[in-house]
Write a structure and sequence with these properties.
Elements lengths: L1 H16 L1 H19 L4 H4 L4 H19 L4 H6 L1 H7 L4 H22 L2 H9 L4 H26 L5 H21 L5 H8 L3 H9 L5 H27 L1
């Protein structure tokens, strides 16, 4: 656990010192502001963040891929991955440390958007429940996106390739639910259960469905496990 926390702190410091992280954060916050003020009528009509959270979830898919593309790919490109693999650090500690570091950066970005619900509380009378569950859904979705990004980063030394692979996987998982509408109902219902977008609307509307929590955590653990196995293959290749 100590090694994991050490790696997580190192990664978070790397994010804070990286111009790319500030660019990603600025883009995220700028789009968040646009979605809150312009493209979310429910913000004013219903004093709700449902439109804002629904729109920002799609942005999260892309930005999570950008945030994680360097985590392992850069280590591989610079030749420092071999040093990490020969150090007294388990593969699981390496991956979990990288994951927690990126999760810390994502959490900071989400915390900076708390300005918007605070505005609603000051100037309106919003229902706090859906706001809390909506942010819980965004956080769980973010965990899943980061785990997919870390897995993609283990596959190549090219950061752009890692970002494209991560983005492809995430958008496939998000839109697979729409593709299910063209299939027979029974098969479509089964495929819907594997869609990232299937459970998210419940969180936005104030419903905490344990199936959604289990799903996001399961997909997160699955891709972290795949990332660990990918690192193990690198150790022996």
């Amino acid at each position: 656990m100590k090694n994991t926390l050490t790696i997580a702190k190192k990664e978070l410091k790397s994010y804070i010192a990286s111009p790319m992280a500030y660019i990603v954060a600025c883009i995220f916050l700028a789009l968040a502001g646009v979605f809150f003020s312009i493209f979310s009528p429910s913000t004013y009509l219903e004093t709700s963040l449902s439109g804002f959270l629904s729109n920002i979830s799609l942005v999260l898919l892309l930005l999570a891929a950008v945030l994680t593309m360097r985590l392992i790919a850069e280590e591989r490109k610079l030749g420092t991955l071999e040093l990490l693999l020969t150090a007294p650090v388990r593969d699981s500690e390496l991956i979990m440390g990288k994951f927690l570091g990126s999760l810390g950066m994502l959490s900071i970005m989400l915390i900076l958007t708390f300005y918007y619900p605070i505005l609603l509380v000051i100037f309106g009378d919003p229902d706090i429940g859906p706001i809390i569950t909506g942010y819980l859904g965004i956080f769980l979705l973010g965990c899943t996106c980061l785990s997919v990004g870390i897995f993609a980063s283990t596959l190549s030394s090219n950061q752009i390739v890692s970002a494209v692979v991560a983005g492809g996987i995430l958008f496939a998982l998000w839109f697979i639910g729409q593709a299910a509408t063209f299939l027979p109902e029974a098969l479509g219902d089964i495929i819907n259960y594997f869609s990232l977008s299937y459970y998210f609307p419940d969180f936005v509307t104030g419903i905490i469905d344990t199936r959604g929590i289990v799903y996001y955590l399961s997909i997160t653990l699955l891709f972290l496990f795949l990332a660990i196995r990918s690192i193990e293959n690198s150790r022996w290749s």
